[in-house]
Amino acid sequence: MKRLRIYSIIAFCLMALKSYAVPIIYINQVAFDSRAAKIAVISTDLALDKNIRFSIINSASLKVEFTGQVTQGQQVNEWAPGKLFYKADFSSVKTKGTYKLKLIVKGISYSSDPFVIDNNALAKLTIPSIIHYYNKQRANTPPELAADSKVRLFGGTNTVDLRGGWCDASGDISKYFSHLAYANFMSPQQIPLVTWSMINTSETSQNLLVKLGVKDSLDNEAIWGADYLMRSLSKDDYFYMTVFTYFDKNPDARRVVGLHANSVTTNEYECAFREGGGMAIAALARISRWKKNGSFTSQQYLDGAKRAFAHLLVNNTKYDDDGKENIIDDYCALMAAVELWISTDSALYRNEARKRAHKLAKRIAPGGYFIADDQSRPFWHASDAGLPVIALCRYLKKENEPAYRDTALNTIKKALSYTLRVTNSVSNPFGYARQTFTYKNEIKEGFFIPHDNETGWWWQGENARLASLATAAMVGGRLVFPTGSNSPVKDSLARFASQQLSWILGCNPYSMCFMYQFGNHNVPYMHSSFGHGSEKGGISNGITGRDGNGDGSGIDFKTSANGNEWRWTEQWLPHAAWFLQAASAMAED
């Protein structure tokens, strides 16, 4: 009888604890810029008191810096049926310091992970580590350099010197201009994007980089990338797409290849505009203006960009796997033409840039999203969703004719307005950027990319996409939604950009900070050959729709999946490249 009584007391206590609705606080575990939006999310199983308030506590002084009321609870049944999510907005806190968010529920105090608030905090804390990450990803160990100095072309005995570049991911030390080319609509920009992103950050944030003592390091890394692009430019004026390792530890197994599904290799290794060629031209043309030499001279960088552009004007559709250009050709060719136009002031590149900007404008659907093909397929992209807007913004750095400017500005405005609309059209407390896609011939909207897509097998976390859209919101927002106040863009875009980066840095339903060795919760270390692997400052793929859901619905994150955990945990070059751009776009230089 006594034992039964004890069991009854335990059961009662457990029920009482459940009724307290123990909260979980999701927050950016790294930093907020002083002038940026600052939002945390709190989840509970049962509703909180409608008058509940939260506090922002200075960790050093224990002073309450701010108190606020949480928003009304929202549900995201696709992710967590029955749970309630509340937002805690403390955007008005701008004082430099380290803080925690504190919440008292039923007399019990709960605290968040710590975070920093400071002017340009994200850039200050992360950019030096991102540069470190890329430096450690260089394919520069003696075995790699020896093998790549004479790597064989697929299907033959001819060799080329493709030393340099960066290993693609913590689990794949191959080197890509772009993979997934065979799928036509999903080609990500890889080594060329990294190089252009470094050049862009060096130019747009140079004073900040000097203060951080990292400008020379970033410039050296950008030149390292440009030198690889030059070596990849064939004597016939096309770029070699991929140095593939076949996941073999023997460096002599490497080949220059094109890729089909499931790592099937071919001799289709010539890059179209959309397969890395356009961004490579853009990077070379832009870095040539630095008048700095690496293994090549600045004049060679520019001459190489000109040769490659002229070649693709004639041969691009021959290299496109389906023989047709699509939106990725348009925005990559626009980037190439703009940087050459800025470098040369030639009417040839001006006219090509205007042609591509016009094509992008014509691709805006009535709903505001871009059309990827010549029919009705919506443009969605797991890595570079913000790049069409960034390309148009870059075009406007040179374009002075009012009619052309108005068209480009209107396109940017429609695209950003669509992004806000589709993101906010459903209950979405984390502010995760949603998208429009086609699934089984039906146009749908959702959080994550469809797993059943043109690749036949590829899907993964979308942290690069989030950072690319944050970059587009800040860079494009300055042009089309200026505020004239202390904030560079209107509040809705500032909140959107901040929430994308906060998701990457821990404000997500798994409380996982995807930038390695930052925050309190990281993905497991991933080993790779020749001393490569997970590095501080690298960013993992991230969260996906539920494994097994072809339309990308639901939510999933796994650190073990019978060898497929790479979809969530693997670091990848484009994530850090886009984060670098986003952090610098949010900073005041």
Structure description:
With 589 residues, the chain is α+β, with helices and mostly antiparallel strands. The chain folds into 2 domains: 21-118, Sandwich (Immunoglobulin-like), CATH 2.60.40; 121-586, Alpha/alpha barrel (Glycosyltransferase). Helix content is 39%, strand content 13%. It has 16 helices and 17 strands. Strands 2, 4, 5, 7, 8 and 9 form a 6-stranded mixed sheet that branches. A hairpin with a 2-residue loop joins strand 7 (97-105) and strand 8. The longest helix is centred in the last third of the chain and has 23 residues, at 402-424. It is globular and about 75 Å long. The relative contact order is 0.13.
Write the layout of secondary structure elements.
Layout: H1 2-19, E1 24-26, E2 31-33, E3 39-44, E4 53-58, E5 64-69, E6 84-89, E7 97-105, E8 108-111, E9 115-118, H2 121-137, H3 142-148, E10 151-153, E11 159-160, E12 175-176, H4 191-204, H5 206-212, H6 215-231, E13 242-244, E14 255-259, E15 265-266, H7 277-287, H8 298-319, H9 327-344, H10 347-362, H11 387-395, H12 402-424, E16 435-439, E17 442-446, H13 463-480, H14 491-504, H15 566-569, H16 573-586
Short description, anyone?
This protein has 16 helices and 17 strands. The strands form four sheets. Strands 2, 4, 5, 7, 8 and 9 form a six-stranded mixed β-sheet that branches.
User: The CATH topology of the largest domain is what?
Assistant: Glycosyltransferase
Shape: globular
Rg from C-alpha positions? 24 Å
- Helix count, DSSP H or I runs of 4 or more residues: 16
Query: How many runs of DSSP E, i.e. beta strands?
Result: 17
Amount of beta strand: 5-15%
